[in-house]
Each structure stands twice: as structure tokens, then as C-alpha cells.
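Appendix B. Raw example, untouched.
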Amino acid sequence: MNMIPPTRTLRIALVGNPNCGKTALFNLLTGSRQKVANYAGATVERKEGRFTTPQGHAIQVLDLPGAYSLVATSPDEAVTRDICAGTYRGEAAPDLLVCVADATNLRLHLRFVLEMRQLGRPMVLALNMIDAARRKGMDIDLPRLAAELGAPVVATVGIRRNGARDLLAQLDAPPPPAPTPLPPDTDLHAIVRRILGECVTRTHPVSGAIEDRLDRWVLHPVWGPVILTVLLFVMFQAVFAWAQPLMDGIDAGMGWIGEQVGHLMPDGALRSLLVNGIIAGAGSVVTFLPQILILFLWILVLEESGYLPRAAFLLDPVMSLAGLSGRSFIPLLSSFACAVPGIMATRTIQNPRDRLVTILIAPLMTCSARLPVYTLLIGAFVPQRAVWGVLNMQGLVLFGLYAAGILSALLVARIARRGGRGQEAALLMELPAYRLPNPRDLLLGLTERARIFLRRVGTTIVSLTVLLWALSSFPAPPAGATGPAIDWSLAGRIGHLMLPIFAPLGFNWQICVALIPGLAAREVAVGALATVYAIGDAGADTDQAAMLGHLLPAHWSVATALSLLAWYVYAPQCVATLAVIRRETASWRVVAITAGYLFTLAYVTALLTYRLALLF
């Protein structure tokens, strides 16, 4: 094979089993020069990045979804198989396959490497976590392993700064020839056993005392659930406690910007648009960015540390009470961050009915878009006082809202499954080694989440806020009219038309107005309320995000606030979630069922909450 000219971009694909450290290696190579999208015609995530080798070669790298075999059992594995084989429509075949394998678990990972060899394409084996393998007393003969596989073998450590040095040197060398495929009837398991016997020796006995000791606690039938509950509880407490100083700083900054713009501009429609529309609306949502990032930080830490698969295994008996298996846990936990990737993660569930039920209940997991609404209402109506000297009452209320969503999801799943777990196989999954989360990977994950959130603020949220400002400002009240100007506007008229439907829940017409843009994105409701009350209250020139928490108790009762909290636990106010359900199920009927039962739950629960709150 001829050497690829330096001017040509070399296309490589990282492929391997889940939990092999492939994504950490991808982050090490590409840093922030990466983008995430979906493959054409599929809901499978596509991660692509670019970097330059020490010798100046331009590399385009794909981080393919993890797969255990080329005999695909899920859409993720099907995409990985087709791209590696060069048969995926609209996607050019990679010039080089970089097979990533966990050096501490070659017995499992080498079989997949042998399957990749059967494709007859140029490949390199990257033995990742080689440092952990050496600590476990494993001595791997890399040259001999390369000879057995017919492909170069390099050692990598995806969490170290120079951990990909050997891989980069290999990419600077002439591309290797394609390995010779094994005969079709070859027993791959036998080949793996022979390779391990010839290429791997142990310098000292394996010591897994620390991991075994941790697993005795983490997977204990009693202490395991206690540890998981404490972790989740502390996570929700941290969302309030850690974020407050940062939120105060952002809130003060947005208030200062609104003040300065208000002083610089004369009274008029443009000043009102900028101050009461864009700055008040967008600023009231940006304020909650620290809470969203803290929530994502916890989820990333649990995932990077190797705890999430153990939590899924631990919760398998609990999920079975709802007719599901532990496979549903990770998609549902992902839905706490956002229901869209959570629903997409259900592709790993093999049983079609279990997958459908998990999709149906994923919107009940309290996603990060609800946090701005929850924080606003809890901060305004729940006193900030200590409980038992150490717990925060606001954090307890937030934990209760999350718990309500979880318990409701289990109940809905149980009803939908009508008992039993169907044909879902027993839960068999690899428990990865415990590891300290890599700060670089955490930072990249949080940066990507902040970028997505701010892009959403700068497009969807600002656009809807400006639209709501226009509806709230026009038509202007006639000369001599009394009362707030918004009463005469289109938004006021729409809110009053909706009032008979939502008045039994304790909602006023301003809440009805805020529910409309909230259909596009839940967090927009906060900006919508800021816009409505900024226009409705005469003389409000400063940032309404800072004032909203003080204004609401003067306009709403506690019963109304509790009713609205109950509404947001269930209401499907997210068009993106409904859209991804349509894409994943290819069924408008499922979308209609999801929206219907969620709206019903939201209305009934909000009604009961309001009536009970009035009684007490």
C-alpha cells in the first residue's frame, strides 16, 4: 500500500467495546476540536474530531459507538459495523481502524479485535489502560501480539497527557497493510485463549483487594441502595448549595447590564425590547447555568468512575418491580440531564417492549430544563432554613420533586408492562474497573453542555422571549385606559382565553401566557414570566430576573406555586422530547399517547395539589 501524501487528511475510526476508554482517548487526541451530531438517517450519535500529528499530518477521527460484536443487536452496533465495513450509506470508509482494547481485560476485548481483523481493512490495536494492566502484574508482549494479529500494537493511557504518544508515532508512519482474515470457521474464542497464553504473563499475583472491598459495599443488597440514595440526595443538595454564589454573581451581572442599557437608551419600544425582553428573558435563564452544570458534573463523575454500571446492576431487582430490567437505569439517569439523549440511550435495550416503556417514562425524569422553574419557585416560596442542623429545606423540596417523578415513572411502567418482564434476558453486563475521573474529560463534557445551553439561550429562548415581548406589547392600550398595558395586548387576551381551563389549578392568566412558549423549552417559562411581569409592572426598568423571585409571592399564593411545581413534574412541555420519541419509535401514535398521559397526569396532580394546599 502506498504512503498517504501529507496533504491528504487521514480518516481514522476509534472502535472498541464499551468501557475500554475509547472516548477518553478521543478527548485526549482532539481536545475541544470535536463536534457531535447524528448519522444521516439514524438517531445514533456521531462524534468527530480533528488533530495534527507531531509530523504535521492532518487526522480526522470518528469516535464510533461502543460494540461488543459485529453481529449487531442494536442500532449503535449496526452503525459501527457498517462504517467499519465501508457499507454505511453516505459515509466514506475509514482509511484506518484504531481498535481500542482494555489492556486489563483482553480476554473479553480481543475477540472483538479478531472480528475487526476479519473485515480485511488496515487496522491498529491500541492497548489502552496499559498502566493499570502493569499495576495488576500483567506483562504483555506487544511485538508478539502484533505478529499474532497481523497489525501494529501500541500502548496508550487515555487519561494521561502524553498517553497517546505511541499511537501518534504510528499515525506518522506509513499506513500498515490490511491483516489477512482468518478462515471463516475459525473458533475465535480458542484463538483468544492461545494468544493470551503466548503473549501475556504475570509478574506477580493479581490483587483486586481494593475493588473487591468496594464492591462488597457498593453491590451489597442493603448498603448498596443506601449508598446510591445518599449519593443522589447529596447531588440534589449540591445543586442548590454549590451553585448559589455563582448564580448570585451571574444575576448581579445581568442586572448591571440591564441597568446600563436602560440608562443609555431613551424610553421607547426598542429600550423595552432590549431591557424587558431580551436581557430580562435570557438573563433569567442564564442565571441557572451553574445548577445545570453541577448536575451534569455529578452524572459525568458517576459515569467516569465506573459506578453507573454497578448502579444499574444494583437496581435490577427494583426495576423488575416495574416490569423492567437494570438496562433501563442508565437511559433513565441520563434523562435527568436531558430526556433527548436519555431516550436515544434506550437503543441498548434489546427487548422492544421494555425499550418502548422506557421511552414512555423517560420524560418523567426531572431534566435540567426544569431546574430553572423549580429553583425560581422554591427560592420564592420555600424558606431557606436548616433541617436537623445539616440539611437545606429547599434542597429537600427539590429532592421530593425528583422522587415524585421517579416513583410516578415506576408506577406508569408497571401499568404499561402489566406485570412481568416479558422476554427480556437476565441482566448480564461488564463491570468496569474503578477509576478516578479524568479532569480533562469532565471539563470537555461540561464545556460542551454549557455551549449547548448557551446556544439554546441565544437562539430558541431569545427568539421566544422576543416573540412574547411583541405579543405582550402590542396592541398598545387606548388613550385614557387604566390598568396594566399587558391586559390590552395579544398575550393578555390569549392568557384570559386560557384562564377558564387552568383557573381550577390556581393559575392566573400570566402563568397561562408563560406556558405557551414553555412548550418549546421548559426553561423559557422563567424568561416568559420575567417578560410578562416586567411589562405588567409599571416602572420596572432594571433586570427582572433579579426581581422575579420577590414579585411572585406578591401575586401568587403558596397553593398556586405548589400547583405549578406539580404541573412541571409531569407536563410534557418540550417539543424536542416529543420529536425524538417520534424519531426513535417512527410512530405518531406513541407521541400522542406520551403527550396525552403526561398532560392528564399534570392536570390531575396540579388540581389535587392546589386543593389540598388550600385545605392545609
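End of appendix B.
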